[in-house]
Design a protein that fits this description.
heterodimer, A: 75 residues, alpha+beta, Translation Initiation Factor IF3, 2 helices, 33% strand, B: 829 residues, Ubiquitin-like (UB roll), five-stranded mixed beta sheet, five-stranded parallel beta sheet
């Protein structure tokens, strides 16, 4: 399980997330990302990115009033 | 209601016919999960988790009523599947913020999720943006909300503000396949939940209510939280100190939740006030007005010596009723020992009123309490600004109206939009000040059993009645023959031609007729609507439990003695159960314990009030005293209960008991006097530590003990004076009352209660005048004058000016002569 805190990237978290998803990970590694909710579009954008990179979105939840978290995994 | 026997899970229990099964089960320690139901309020059926099976049929325990012989099963395979699905649904998209959520550790979502064992999730729906709302003293996070609607229910059924409602949320509909695949009730629950969030009834995002915070208290999750508490502490770090609220006579059971101030400061601090919201509802003062302690006090030996010297010099002790029974007892003992005059004007008025009442009623205390009022279905309120004099009386009135299909008459000169909005079945009679006797005579006339009422009173009441001829207009249906032209085919010629045809139809017609009707002059004297009796007849339909609430306007009325006798007659000769609102926190206790004098002598000690030498729990006197939240002792409530309260915070200074000991009394602690109260009529000789303080699962209040109402000697004299019809104030009028959430200097001293001191005027009266919010005005009466700024208040209506009493520096009491109303002039300065 690897956790990536992308909250400091504010709305521009996608390039870094894509970079991470493109890196090689152990098989069935669970990746957890944290990013800011912003205008709520990051929620769908993160899901789209996970799919685009060939991962499965296991969970996508509000983490607190301003942050969101997703869980992704590649079987 | 009859008792019935029902069987729940094989256990035979007895309950009242018509009682909700959930309440019956709880009262008998049988557990049925339930989230949305609030005891004392209407069932909402939002959560559906209280599903049970009754004689083979699934019902909701919160709204199914007990009937003789019912067989109830609280758990079946189907029910358990529903409950599991319901909890899974509540967990769908629920934020993962337990680590920072204020409710964590006391969250019903956490508890039920664990109890039902939700270890996987079967359902999904795309989440939607649900940003938080800043509602002033409340913070609403719709992301955390499970839309159980408890907040809406509490606000409507208990508090009466009706400020919250469910509103449309938007977002994706549920996957249609769920309708088939999911258990039926969980799908129906989710389908509604998925479309809703909580919003404000005023259509804005600015909350405008009486700020009690009860909605946040009842919230099972962290969705609605008090802003002052948000992100301040984990619930499990707090220590709960059981107490009685010290702000008004309601005597609400509360707990002060305390812990150290910070890592740098080990001093205990109150973080919040909690309540058993199923059984007691707090007002904003009780909820948020908790940090009124007398802080950082140490034993000041010089001040103490001065105090002892002052007591030796004094011939009078003045005090307020923000005092425990034990302290009142100490004062009484000191009075007996040293001959002090004890002066407490508001308690003296109440004591005299009670005594005058007893002369006719034959009992030392009024017969009823607010719980009885809450369970009634017809309430009459006279002589109290009910919303602010005793918020729990207001809640009882509202709850009776909303959940018992009740009706009410609210007699008060000050129009109150909050009271008016409670129900369409409450009629406010905004009579002139000083007409309270007329109102009481009207109640006697409308409700008393005239076959038993003394003949002279019956005759006097009859003298107000006459017959008058009125012209009534009513609409009747009349048959009218009309000649209309129609096209018809002439059978002979075969041609179509116009013919005249007679047609009859029923048309409404207004007719006037003269009828003789009863004319009750009491109604017109009180300025009541011409059609009041028609309204009254409608209000009285299906009403069988009657309560009357009377309040402080009556205790200082120039004719208070006659009024007390009238009140007693109503209780004696009608179906009304009676409750009186004691003026301040422990006015009833003081009235029972102390022999009070009318006037002060030449040198007075003041306890929380101005005098030659002042003992002050407010930290403003010559010697510090503890505030109520720093004291152990008992307080006597409107419900005639002697309730224990504990010290939430430490106090380092001298107490009244220390002074008493120095003057020759002997008690280690103030609460040593709790048992001594037994020497006072009505009180019991109970040790403080033996006093219980809890509610049972049946909602029974087991707190302290009930004052005993004693039989008093009465003469057979039930005479009452006739109405002085010349009485009644017109013109510019002031009224001594507080805004919501304020009672005394103690509430004024708290951080969260930010109501301003000043001259309160209704928003509508300001609009119609040349005065504005914030203007400095000079108010003058025959008794006194003051200058203060205007505060616009939309929680009152009409033209009467409200002068608060919560700020002693305003000295509003100097403008009246006892009675709370007075004529005044007001000028901009």
């Amino acid at each position: 399980m690897k956790r990536y805190d992308l909250r400091h990237l504010k709305d521009n978290f996608d390039p870094r997330m894509k970079e991470i998803l493109s890196e090689s990970h152990k098989a069935t590694e669970t990746l957890i990302f944290l990013f800011e909710i912003g205008d709520f579009t990051p929620v769908q954008r993160s899901a789209d990115l996970v799919k685009e990179c060939g991962y499965e979105l296991y969970n996508s939840l509000k983490f607190n009033e301003v942050d969101w978290t997703i869980v992704a995994k590649k079987d | 209601m009859n008792n019935v026997s029902i069987n729940i899970d094989g256990k035979e229990i007895v309950t009242q016919e018509g009682e909700f099964l959930l309440n019956a089960a709880r009262a008998n320690d049988i557990y049925i999960p339930a989230i949305c139901y609030l005891t004392r309020c209407s069932p909402t059926l939002a959560c559906r988790i209280c599903l049970v099976e009754v004689d083979g049929k699934q019902v909701y325990a919160c709204n199914a009523k007990a009937k003789e012989g019912m067989n109830v099963i609280t758990k079946t395979e189907t029910i358990e599947k529903e409950r599991r699905a319901i909890m899974e649904v509540y967990d769908v998209n629920h934020p993962l913020q337990c680590g920072v959520c204020d409710q964590s550790g006391e969250c019903e979502l956490q508890n039920y999720t664990l109890e039902i064992g939700v270890d996987s999730q079967s359902y999904t729906v795309q989440d939607v943006d649900r940003a938080s709302h800043d509602w002033g003293h409340l913070h609403y996070d719709p992301g955390l909300c499970i839309v159980c609607e408890r907040c809406v229910t509490a606000c409507k059924d208990m508090i009466g503000d009706n400020s919250l409602k469910t509103i449309a949320r938007g977002g994706d509909p549920l996957n249609v396949d769920y309708k088939e695949s999911m258990p039926k009730d969980s799908y129906a629950m989710w389908n509604k939940l998925n479309k809703s969030v909580i919003g404000l009834t005023n259509g804005t995002d600015v909350l405008d209510c009486t700020s009690c915070g009860e909605c946040a208290a009842v919230c099972p999750v962290g969705a609605l939280v008090s802003t002052q508490f948000m992100y301040k502490s984990n619930s499990w770090e707090l220590k709960s100190i059981p107490a009685t609220c010290g702000h008004c006579s309601a005597g609400c059971q509360i707990s002060y939740d305390v812990k150290h101030t910070s890592v740098h400061n080990p001093d205990e601090k109150i973080y919040r006030v909690m309540n058993e919201w199923n059984y007691v509802s707090l007002c904003g003062a009780g909820r948020y007005g908790f940090d009124y302690e007398n802080r950082d006090v140490v034993k000041d030996e010089v001040a103490f010596k001065n105090a002892i010297a002052a007591f030796k010099k004094a011939d009078t002790i003045k005090f307020t009723s923000t005092i425990t029974n034990e302290e009142a007892f100490i004062l009484e003992t000191l009075k007996d020992k040293f001959g002090y005059k004890l002066v407490n004007d508001e308690a003296k008025s109440f004591q005299t009123f009670l005594s005058d009442y007893s002369a006719v009623s034959g009992t030392s205390l009024y017969g009823s309490d607010l719980k009885t009022a809450m369970n009634s279905n017809f309430i009459v309120s006279i002589g109290t600004a009910i919303k602010t004099d005793n918020p729990n009386a207001r809640y009882a009135l509202n709850n009776s109206l909303t959940t018992n299909k009740g009706a009410a008459l609210y007699f008060h000169p000050v129009a109150d939009p909050v009271v008016d909005a409670m129900s369409k079945n409450i009629v406010s009679i905004n009579h002139k000040p000083l007409q309270e006797e007329t109102a009481l005579y009207l109640v006697l006339d409308l409700f008393a059993d005239k076959s038993k009422l003394p003949t002279d009173i019956v005759e006097y009441l009859a003298s107000f009645h006459s017959t008058k001829t009125v012209t009534l207009t009513e609409t009747i249906k009349e048959k009218v023959i009309e000649i209309v032209k129609e096209m018809k085919v002439n059978e002979e010629t075969g041609e179509e031609e116009e013919v005249e045809v007679e047609k009859s139809k029923m048309v409404p017609k207004k007719v006037s007729k003269e009828v003789e009707v009863d004319d009750n002059r009491l109604l017109s004297m009180l300025g009541m609507a011409d059609d009041f009796m028609e309204t009254f007849t409608k209000l009285m339909k299906k009403k069988d439990i009657f309560s009357m609430i009377v309040g402080p306007d009556l205790y200082n009325h120039p004719n208070s003695k006659n009024i007390a006798r009238l009140v007693a007659l109503i209780e004696k000769y009608s179906a009304f159960e009676l409750v009186m609102i004691p003026t301040l926190t422990n006015t009833l206790g003081v009235a029972m314990i102390n022999e009070l004098s009318d006037t002060a002598g030449s040198y007075a000690i003041g306890y929380n009030t101005e005098a030659d030498f002042v003992l002050s729990g407010l930290g403003e006197g010559d010697l510090d005293m503890p505030a109520i939240n720093q004291q152990e002792g008992t307080l006597t409530s409107i419900n005639k209960n002697v309730n224990p309260t504990n010290a939430a915070l430490p106090y380092g200074g001298y107490t009244l008991n220390d002074i008493a000991n120095a003057l020759g009394l002997n008690a280690q602690n103030t609460i040593d006097y709790t048992v001594e109260l037994g020497s006072i009529d009505g009180f019991k000789a109970e040790e403080f530590d033996a006093l219980p303080d809890h509610y049972t699962n049946a909602g029974e209040e087991i707190r302290g003990y009930k004052l005993e109402s004693l039989s008093t000697s009465t003469s057979s004299d039930e005479s009452v004076s006739k109405i002085d019809e010349a009485l009644g104030l017109d013109g510019a009028i002031i009224y001594l009352a507080n805004p919501v959430r304020q009672f005394t200097d103690f509430t004024k001293n708290t951080t969260n209660l930010d109501e301003k001191s000043g001259v309160y005027m209704s928003a509508e009266s300001l609009e119609a005048s040349e005065l504005n919010d914030g203007d400095s005005v000079f108010v003058k009466t025959d008794n006194g004058e003051l200058t203060a700024n205007i505060v616009s208040d939309n929680k009152i209506a009409g033209n009467i000016i409200i002068l608060p009493t919560f700020d002693s520096k305003l000295n509003s009491g100097a403008l009246v002569n006892g009675y709370r109303f007075a004529n005044a002039s007001i000028q901009k300065v």
